[in-house]
């Protein structure tokens, strides 16, 4: 099992004929993703890399039962593309794009809540369940198994997941929340799904400084029956300096590394100091189960 998408999910790509859309389509297909359609305004009726093209999301949905869409759309046009997908009834929407205006993000996220759609991102690496990848994650890192992963950082996730795969521990699903100030989903949203997923035995949380997402996650972790292993980036970051992501900034004493570690530890999560420790802790938990 997995969360949000699985091997049977039918996937749409918006912006499929662009440079990024084409490149990642060629990675998604060999992973096993069932890409049934692409949207490229003005190119409807054509075929791109074996995938039928449509002018609009509505048109694509008329011809295919689409479960999820991934957006490789320039920031200026992302709001319209996301709203089109939401209004068409697609329930899982992955927004890879960064530099989307904050007000546009607010509109997207609020509309998705009204339509009961799940937004992954913006500014995310995407997500993957076995045989279904939505985004830019490296294929080689993943394998099927009992570990659910939810993260704010992409490269750290690849390192941790790849290391787990190398010792024979695979994943149910891996979800990137994105690094912007207005995320479409939270740690708590994904933790709830992993808690309900029968195949997930251990959850890995990859967080970072800034905001209060990890502290909110800690409150929910107190209620979980499944063990959580956490790693936090930004231990050495000075206050007031943004570290990579728009949301990774310590302001007025809030969102500190120490505060997050304290909250997660108090909630019962095992907090790793280094990425390799995550792998060791997960391995120990899997052996006990």
Automatic annotation (TrEMBL):
<feature type="binding site">
    <location>
        <begin position="17"/>
        <end position="20"/>
    </location>
    <ligand>
        <name>CoA</name>
    </ligand>
</feature>
<dbReference type="InterPro" id="IPR005810">
    <property type="entry name" value="CoA_lig_alpha"/>
</dbReference>
<keyword id="KW-0816">Tricarboxylic acid cycle</keyword>
<dbReference type="InterPro" id="IPR036291">
    <property type="entry name" value="NAD(P)-bd_dom_sf"/>
</dbReference>
<feature type="active site" description="Tele-phosphohistidine intermediate">
    <location>
        <position position="245"/>
    </location>
</feature>
<dbReference type="InterPro" id="IPR017440">
    <property type="entry name" value="Cit_synth/succinyl-CoA_lig_AS"/>
</dbReference>
<comment type="subunit">
    <text>Heterotetramer of two alpha and two beta subunits.</text>
</comment>
<dbReference type="GO" id="GO:0004775">
    <property type="term" value="F:succinate-CoA ligase (ADP-forming) activity"/>
</dbReference>
<dbReference type="Pfam" id="PF02629">
    <property type="entry name" value="CoA_binding"/>
</dbReference>
<feature type="domain" description="CoA-binding">
    <location>
        <begin position="4"/>
        <end position="100"/>
    </location>
</feature>
<comment type="function">
    <text>Succinyl-CoA synthetase functions in the citric acid cycle (TCA), coupling the hydrolysis of succinyl-CoA to the synthesis of either ATP or GTP and thus represents the only step of substrate-level phosphorylation in the TCA. The alpha subunit of the enzyme binds the substrates coenzyme A and phosphate, while succinate binding and nucleotide specificity is provided by the beta subunit.</text>
</comment>
<keyword id="KW-0547">Nucleotide-binding</keyword>
<dbReference type="InterPro" id="IPR003781">
    <property type="entry name" value="CoA-bd"/>
</dbReference>
<dbReference type="Pfam" id="PF00549">
    <property type="entry name" value="Ligase_CoA"/>
</dbReference>
<comment type="pathway">
    <text>Carbohydrate metabolism; tricarboxylic acid cycle; succinate from succinyl-CoA (ligase route): step 1/1.</text>
</comment>
<feature type="binding site">
    <location>
        <begin position="96"/>
        <end position="98"/>
    </location>
    <ligand>
        <name>CoA</name>
    </ligand>
</feature>
<protein>
    <recommendedName>
        <fullName>Succinate--CoA ligase [ADP-forming] subunit alpha</fullName>
        <ecNumber>6.2.1.5</ecNumber>
    </recommendedName>
</protein>
<dbReference type="InterPro" id="IPR005811">
    <property type="entry name" value="SUCC_ACL_C"/>
</dbReference>
<feature type="binding site">
    <location>
        <position position="43"/>
    </location>
    <ligand>
        <name>CoA</name>
    </ligand>
</feature>
<feature type="binding site">
    <location>
        <position position="158"/>
    </location>
    <ligand>
        <name>substrate</name>
    </ligand>
</feature>
<comment type="similarity">
    <text>Belongs to the succinate/malate CoA ligase alpha subunit family.</text>
</comment>
<dbReference type="InterPro" id="IPR016102">
    <property type="entry name" value="Succinyl-CoA_synth-like"/>
</dbReference>
<keyword id="KW-0436">Ligase</keyword>
């Amino acid at each position: 099992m997995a969360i949000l998408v699985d091997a049977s999910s039918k996937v749409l790509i918006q912006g499929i004929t662009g440079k990024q859309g084409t490149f990642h389509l060629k990675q998604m297909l060999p992973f096993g993703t069932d890409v049934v359609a692409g949207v490229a305004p003005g190119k409807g009726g054509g075929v791109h890399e074996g995938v039928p093209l449509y002018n609009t999301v509505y048109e694509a949905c008329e011809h295919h039962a689409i479960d999820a869409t991934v957006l490789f759309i320039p920031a200026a046009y992302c709001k319209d593309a996301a709203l089109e997908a939401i209004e068409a009834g697609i329930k899982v929407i992955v927004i890879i794009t960064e530099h989307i205006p904050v007000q546009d993000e607010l509109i997207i996220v609020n509309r998705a809540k009204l339509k009961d759609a799940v937004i992954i991102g913006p500014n995310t690496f995407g997500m993957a369940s076995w045989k279904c990848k939505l985004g830019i994650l490296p294929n080689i890192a993943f394998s099927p198994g009992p570990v659910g992963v939810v993260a704010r950082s992409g490269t750290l996730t690849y390192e941790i997941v790849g290391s787990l795969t190398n010792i024979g521990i695979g994943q149910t699903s891996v979800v990137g929340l994105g690094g912007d100030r207005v995320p479409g989903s939270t740690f708590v949203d994904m933790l709830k799904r992993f808690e309900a997923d029968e195949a997930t035995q251990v959850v890995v949380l990859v967080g970072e400084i800034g905001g209060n997402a990890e502290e909110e996650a800690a409150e929910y972790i107190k209620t979980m029956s499944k063990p959580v292993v956490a790693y936090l980036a930004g231990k050495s970051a000075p206050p007031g300096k943004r570290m990579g992501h728009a949301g990774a900034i310590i302001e007025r004493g809030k969102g500190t590394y120490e505060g997050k570690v304290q909250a997660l530890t108090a909630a019962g999560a095992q907090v790793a100091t280094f990425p390799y420790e995550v792998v060791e802790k997960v391995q120990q938990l899997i052996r006990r189960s």
